[in-house]
Design a protein that fits this description.
Elements lengths: L8 H14 L4 E6 L15 E5 L5 E6 L3 E8 L2 E8 L3 E6 L5 E3 L12 H5 L42
Antiparallel strand pairs: 1-2, 1-6, 3-4, 4-5, 6-7
């Protein structure tokens, strides 16, 4: 019986992370939060969280093939973070928005937001998503791109 092929996603995430750091940019992970993700729930918005994973913001970062793990401070309190690679939908440089988006199997939210109820949404749609949420704990405006994938193949961004 042959082993299943390892996804390219964790390798691309590590490469994009290194590119951000090597260029002096601040790498951010955009994550669809589900029951497997260990993140501070008070910072989750609409089932998503954006995390600053720069070397100055995290401690003991491990970007494995299955999990991304590190510790970071949220409002001065150290927290252990664990995110499945499958839940990451983007890694990008905060300063430029350059990076890459990925498809994820998004969990259906248990509770709809008021905006979703108002617009009659009950789950994922094929409409383009909003810009990425602002990073947690970083006072900055959200970049206008990349946007969340709309389904099908991942949207690729050219990195120069």
């Amino acid at each position: 019986m042959a082993n299943a092929e390892i996804s390219t996603k964790p390798y691309l995430l590590r490469a994009l992370y290194e590119w951000c750091v090597d260029n002096g940019y601040t790498p951010h992970l955009a994550v669809k939060v589900d029951s497997r993700a260990q993140v501070p729930s008070e910072y989750v918005r609409n089932g998503e969280i954006t995390l600053n994973v720069s070397p100055s913001a995290v401690h003991k970062l491990q970007m494995g093939n299955e999990l991304i793990e590190f510790s970071a401070r949220f409002a001065g309190v150290a927290r252990q973070i664990s995110v499945p690679v499958t839940c990451v939908y983007a890694l990008y440089a905060r300063e430029t928005g350059h990076g890459m988006t990925f498809d994820v199997d998004a969990p259906k939210p248990a509770i709809q937001s008021d905006a979703e109820k108002e617009h009659g949404r009950t789950g994922p749609s094929n409409e383009p998503g909003p810009a990425l949420p602002p990073p947690v704990g970083v006072p900055t405006a959200a970049p206008t791109e990349p946007t969340k994938p709309t389904g099908g193949k991942p949207q690729l961004r050219r990195i120069k």
